[in-house]
Fold each of these.
Amino acid sequence: MLTAAQVLAQNNFGDTRTGGLAGPMGLFLILVLGTATVLLIRNMNARLRRLPDRFPAQESEAGRDEMARAVSDPTDETVTADSSTDAANRHQQRRDT
């Protein structure tokens, strides 16, 4: 005959088999996520090291105004010619550095 303690001690909740995979699978997933995190951090640090200390200065206000005029009035040949010359000069400077 079953006593009250034996009835209360029975496990009737879910899977009762022994040797489940939850523990090893959880450990595996934690290790994979940790490894991925370490590799992503190393990759980002390498990319940040390759960036220059300072970026080139932005175009001056006059240069932006000139480009805005060239876009708004493409029939004005002097502005367009000046803009293309400026663009060629900037391209040459980038190649030299």
Note: The chain has a mean pLDDT of 75.
Amino acid sequence: MQQRSSSIGTVHLVGAGPGDPDLLTLRAARLIMAASLIVHDGLVDPSILAMAHPGARLISVAKSRSRHTMAQEAINALLVREALAGNDVVRLKGGDPFIFGRGGEEAEACRAAGVPVRVVPGISSALGAAAAAQVPLTHRDHASIVSFVAGQCKGLAEQDWAGLAGKGRTLVIFMGIATSAAIAEKLMADGLAPDAPVAVIENATRHGMRVLRCPLAGLPDLIQGARVKSPALIVIGDVAAEPDNTIRELALEAVK
């Protein structure tokens, strides 16, 4: 992936997975190692960025709840500008680009400017976190439906979450740590039992991974008392109930 002055470059929207570099796809690893320009999110693990060759340009566009290094419109413009200058761009995102990764917006901006786009899927943080914690999102005895929702979104209080969690269902909440109190209150107001099992998975697949459990009504106290920080996912449903000791020890051993 070298700079080309006579043609338009390609923007590769690449999923970096939940954090562990061993969980990258082969295509993602090849693109990262060959890239001359990587535009990356803050959730991409440093060990993955270290795979880039020494001459590569790395541009961080990290976002947090209270601070954005670069607004989304500016990121879109950056990708288009670099590609139109003849550069291939690896746009590296935690998880999967099209699951709460704003990959759809970036792909639209590139296509509107006539820039070719390629999408390389990654293991979604929901799937990676659940697997690392050995929390099965589906289970013949407990859940045949899975829903993914964003815990930070406009109009959260006005949304109807009734039916997203409950008997036979699993609810996975992204970006819900800062709004955990509102989430718990809303789910209970929409009919979910206060004692519904909850698992909070912090730093999934990375050093320092934690799996914490509580009933739904105790979620805000758990988040505050354990000082849970992002990246973390909230899993709600019967599958989030405490596993036996053997499974719990295996899950913890996997991240040592």
Note: The helical segments are 26-34, 46-49, 72-84, 103-112, 125-133, 180-189, 219-225, 245-253.
Amino acid sequence: MTQEPRWLSDREQRAWQAYRRMFLLLNAQLSRDLARQSGLSEPDYDVLSSLGSRPDHRCRVSELAERMLWSRSRLSHHLARMEQRGLVVREECATDGRGAVVVLTAPGQRTIEAAAPLHVESVRKYFIDLLTAEEIDVFADVGETVVERLTDTEGRRPTG
């Protein structure tokens, strides 16, 4: 005998649909602004901001792929395009000859420094400034709860 589905209540359906619509519209708007203002794609920005936030401006390719939830192959192709634009370079990993490290270049640093203030202003305009301080806290709590459930202790997606 199969168990009946646990259908969403009207209240739950409203929350789920509001989240889905907000997610799609907000990401589309932020992507448009990012491309128009800085010529960067979301993945470009993710790579540059990840590297820029590290003291040494470098990260193992495998670690960056995991953070972005991309395969190493997909990230490698994207990094090749970013290398052609002079934003990053790849180097062999000193501690593991099989691994590679991606490094932020000086032009990449200038690019993220110019893009970040514009991007944060878009995030404020279309998200943060629309919410009260209490709503921001609740949103952060909800997001952290869901992320915690979807990741294991090492921050990776569950395997099964």
Note: The chain has a mean pLDDT of 92.
